[in-house]
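Narrative summary of target 7.
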Amino acid sequence: MDTAFLDYLYQEHQRAQHKVSDTAICQLIEGVVQLLFPSLSERQFSSPEALKAYAKALKKELHRLLSGMQHQLPAPAKELTNALMNRLPQIHQLMLEDATAILEGDPAARNLNEVIRTYPGFRAVVFYRLAHVLYRLEIPLLPRILSEYAHAKTGIEIHPGAVIGSHFCIDHGTGVVIGETAVIGNNVKIYQGVTLGALSVDKAMAFTKRHPTIEHNVVIYAGATILGGNTVVGANSIIGGNVWLTESVPPYSRVYHRSQIKVSRSADPAEAINYSI
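Modeled conformation, tokenized:
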């Protein structure tokens, strides 16, 4: 390989030597999730002191990682570490409310433990809740690393900048996309393939509200696409499957897509068209 190119790469590595490892931050947050939910934990604690020691170790590791990027932070690493750890009780309560919403909204869910251990929608929201706190603390890059980690694990993409209320339920979830400036109220339920996106990808709109607002108690069915920062779905509305919505609807609306499906029957089975996918 060209020596000059390797020298160039070495200089690039030197400039990036204090970066936070993607693997390290994801492992740390996995550890936090295991602390919050015993059914997900790979550890058994023999005493309250053992659990407290584990929590202390997580805090120490978070401080170490943030210290490695101190020059990029809006406040001292210790202050930001304390801010996240002190918010864990509130975050945990929101996560339990999300799990309860899934349990109450999905007939297939048998109990809360099953939701916590197996539902990708819950896992995606758990990581969103933690990433959102980092985002609000103005910690660069790490929130996006966590959201993309959850995206890879679940097929659900929630930008950490989105604002999501309590009792949020994602059913099935594959293909869900929620943009950075989306605002979602309490008791909202969405199904797989839903997009809360922007009408335009113009870079000039980077610091404007580009994604829709979903008010309280809304249900959005599979495949629906809702676009635009000025689009508001009023409270207690139902958005049907495959709807394409770019304008606001008032509370208690019912919006649906009426497809035209033709069903015909061949007189001779031999005339049937065979498709190969």
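The chain is about 40% helix and 10% strand.
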